[in-house]
Amino acid sequence: MNLTALEPQALEIIKRYDEPRAAMLPLLWLVQTNVGHIPSEAECWVGGLLGVALSHVREVVSFYSMFRTREAGRHELRVCTSLPCMLRGAGDVLAQIEERLHIRPRETTPDGELTLTEVECLCACEIAPAGQLDEQFVGPLDRTTIDAIESDAVAPYTGSARIDEAHPFVSTDGPVISTRFRNTGGTWWDAYIADGGYVAARKALSSMTSSQIVDEVSKANLRGLGGAGFPTGRKWSFIPKASLKPRYLVVNADEGEPGTFKDRYILERDPHALLEGMIIAAYAIGSHKAYVYIRGEYFRPAERFARAVAEAYERGWLGKNIQGRGFDLDVVIHRGAGAYICGEETALLTSIEGGKGFPKLKPPFPAISGLFQCPTIVNNVETLACVPFILREGADRFAALGTPKQGGTRLFSLCGRVNRPGLYEAPVGITLRELIDRHAQGVRRGHTLKAVIPGGISAKVLTAEEIDVAMDFDSLQAAGTMAGSGGVIVMDDSASMIEALQSAAKFFAHESCGQCSPCREGTGWIHRIMRRIARGEGRLHDLDDLLAIARAMEGKTICVFADAAAWPVQSYITKFRAEFEEHITTRRGAETTHVDEARACPP
Amino acid sequence: MPTLTIDGRQIDSPDGSTVIQAAETLGIFIPRYCYHPGLSIAGNCRICLIEVEKNPKLQIACNTPVADGMVVHTSSVKADEGRRAVLEFLLANHPLDCPVCDQSGECDLQNFYMNFGLYDPRFREQKIKKKKAVAVGPHVMLDQERCILCSRCVRFTDEISKTGEFGIFNRGDRAEVGLYPGQQLDNPYSGNVVDICPVGALTDRDFRFKARVWYLSSAPTVCNGCAQGCNVDVHYVLDRPHLNDGARILRVKPRYNADVNQWWMCDEGRYGFGWIDKGRLTKVRRQGAGATWEQAVAGITEELTKVGERDPERGTCLRLGVIASPQLTNEELFLIREIFQRALGARVTASVPMPAGNSDNFLIRADKNPNTHGAALIGLTDATAPDAAAIVAETLEGQLDALWVFGYDLTKLVADEDLQRLSRSLRLFVFSGTNDNPTAGCSHWALPTAAYLEKEGTFVNAHGRVQRIGRAFPPLSDSREDWRVLLEIAGRLNLGFAWRSPEEIFQALARSVTPFAGLTYERIGLHGASLMTDASVAEVAVT
Lengths: 603, 543
What we know:
The complex is a heterodimer.
Chain A: H1 7-16, H2 24-35, H3 40-50, H4 54-63, E1 75-80, H5 83-86, H6 90-101, E2 114-119, E3 131-133, E4 136-138, H7 143-154, E5 169-170, H8 189-194, H9 199-207, H10 210-219, H11 232-237, E6 248-253, H12 262-269, H13 271-285, E7 289-294, H14 299-314, E8 330-335, H15 345-352, E9 376-380, H16 381-393, H17 395-401, E10 409-416, E11 422-427, H18 432-439, E12 449-453, E13 462-463, H19 473-478, E14 487-492, H20 497-511, H21 517-537, H22 540-553, H23 561-575, H24 577-585
Parallel strand pairs in A: 1-2, 5-11, 6-7, 6-9, 7-8, 10-14
Antiparallel strand pairs in A: 1-3, 3-4, 10-11, 12-13, 12-14
Chain B: E1 3-6, E2 9-12, H1 19-25, E3 49-52, E4 59-60, E5 71-73, H2 77-92, H3 108-117, E6 134-135, E7 140-142, H4 152-160, E8 166-169, E9 176-179, H5 192-196, E10 202-204, E11 217-222, E12 231-236, E13 249-254, H6 267-271, E14 285-286, E15 289-290, H7 293-304, E16 320-323, H8 330-343, E17 347-349, H9 372-378, H10 388-396, E18 402-406, H11 416-425, E19 428-433, H12 438-442, E20 445-448, E21 458-460, E22 465-468, H13 482-492, H14 502-512, H15 521-524, E23 529-530, H16 534-542
Parallel strand pairs in B: 1-5, 16-17, 16-18, 18-19, 19-20
Antiparallel strand pairs in B: 1-2, 3-4, 3-5, 6-7, 7-10, 8-9, 11-12, 12-13, 14-15, 14-20, 21-22, 22-23
Helix pairs in contact in B: 2-3, 7-13, 8-13, 8-14
């Protein structure tokens, strides 16, 4: 292995970052892409280049699930077994794949062609049960796709061309974010300009002050669409005016909330909308450097966004003295490597800084001391993609689309047991019932709706009787759940709440960063109890224990991951207790087989 | 300075300080695992949860900055509940192998369970298996199952030793502390990670299984390994000779001193105590045969009275040389000066050749003597004084008739035959010291003296700080403190000293040697005191 040959590239990468250590993830990716895995000497090489102790390089390599220290097959098939995929048969699919390929997850076919990996949510829930063959999403995984994968794996696999791309339903009618989603191959420079692109950014740079922009965004009632719903304009105003330190705009494109796949479509189909929003935001907060953190599994979205960035540099919309207005902005695309927690804004910053994705202690808050201890604003992709519309069409128009406290539309990801999973743009005040019945065309014939998770797996579940609720942040909060990332996971009467909770518990146990003791131990504990119950070895007392553990985890950790892990437990058991009790007393589940969970929770 | 209320008591606490610190000044102890005052804040263990009024969530005391008007409850029902919950999580995967764990008795999982836990355990699942009893370096043993992942050791090797060995690998409940495969925890400060590990995950290979900690007694002293003078506690057992092959000292632990060593000490000092229980001189010897202290003192004094008198045979005055040692206390060096140099006119030095040892810019000094600075202040190493080599040379040339060597082994300076010759030619050759060596073997009188832990006294460290060494336990067997021997001889010589203890000797020293002016044992206390600098001496003179 010739690492020296990679050195020029490595040095080029290091230069992009404000601190050498921040080049940790890209350098590890560089090694893995070229070598196939990250051998020990590469860890030494990276540590040496960055001045980081070997133990800390290993910490990072072991933290992110996409990095591997041992050789794998020439290709990797990742099969998702998170809740949205489970609801569409991922368990059976994985069993079929194992049977056909004669390998178990984490094993490689004898010819060294294909490594099978079981993964948590790939955020391709619209094509569930989903998988990813190397860089390409595949799904729904059915007999045909598995056939294709199998024949390819047996006769050396030559590329991803043989597997057709699925075409789930995707809104293209806007009015705000999805208007250019009909360009399935991406909206590139000319098309974007022809559609009013960069008008808003030009307006901001040529005729607006920073505070005018903040006011406009505040007036539009734009809320953070990553999940927290914090007013965007107010967030921007937290940047200390007097600070002499550099300021950073960080884009959270680490989409990972099970049931959500909206940011991927923006990155792939309308990347300039994000970029234009970034330019406006950066100008408003006085930042000259923006980092875009794109999750590791999003290969094509990252490529497409990179293309948009290159176009913008060429056209003078990035770099020095943008459009002659004296404003500079550079953009660095940073790739994750498989860790849900990096979607938490401070974990995302630690991850950019070259560490494990550990959320940071607050105070200080990122607006005061964030990336590299400098004032930092972290915004979600969709949030920023709304900004050009607001400046172009006016804050009032955006605000009018929504509720009095939340303006605009948002992209709702609908998945699970609905007839038409897909991505729907709708005003934020739409009801959950309308989304499910009208947009996603309801649950399958012969079945009735049982339960809905309205805002990604972390949100508390709603029963079929509770879906006449508007989808804005405040209404859902009042209904005892949350709008979160807009990922709607639908369960019909054939879904088992025990399996659903077990799947959620598996997800949280796998994704806890392990920093705070209540979360690290609690998620694993809950998962082990749930696994036992699912196997038919539950005790009635387990339900009270689960509720007590969930309560003990709540509100005691650095970030809200532990709370998010607790909420499903509380809501599923409280709202469906009879089903849980019946499952336990009849010892159901003893005969069914479950997917291998050793990965999430070793015996 | 913000004023806050903690458990109903008001306190002013400096800006930027945290609730855990403010509580500590009030004497309110908030439990902690990851928090360590010498390390950065990690905030991961969550055991220090407190209730802050007007805040719906419990906060961690270690990272909550004090604020004016803040009202804190450290043991409200809510805070207690939160803490109990955290403890239950920490113990969920803990192996509970206390009966075979060396940390038992000084384990904060045990302590906090007794103080803040006392819940009925609910964990019924299979515990996660990790590696046990892994020797990660020459001094430290790792048990991953007992680890609560507080990251103190990781922060220590990052921030204090700056060697970066430790890491926490993997995530979730698979996370485990460890070293990069193939690496060793082999830095000069590795033993500190054992001290700061709040549980039994990192234990001391040297101390492991030698004694249960509740059998240990502790005494404060100062490390004699180099001129830094790190404050330490020595842990020993006197009444259980079946433990540890009868050796009294079990281990040495750093003792906090903000000005000297903070919370730390080096491995060389920590593990360098073996000589105190092994290879000691235990009996007075005269020409290799057993003798008593009374005989020795009488015999030696008899010879010493002749010093300065004319030798009728040779027609010259009898002359004495003394090789003192920067291992001796100030009190002893002062007595040596008063008796030998001033009263008997002897050639006296405390300059003994010692190859410069390893050093760094943290705690390890190249000067491996604890009291070089003190010896210099007392005037036994200044430019006018001869050094040990000169005194030995003078002896070999026949210019000295009597020689007293304190602890030093002359074979480091001269060949064995020369030592033999020297022994034969001298009228009086006394060796006093703690451990046997060839010089003791050749001396006319070999006097067993007390190790520094066995006597009272003071050292002055490289930074001019005078510190008391204390007396952990009595001198071994027949050995006696050097100061006691010297005082007895002074008495026989009728020098008229009224001092009966090191403290009284120190008072005389403080009156006589300017930099010590105004100091007393009480003022030096447990943490030492800075000597007078030239500037402060001038100030005293003016007033």
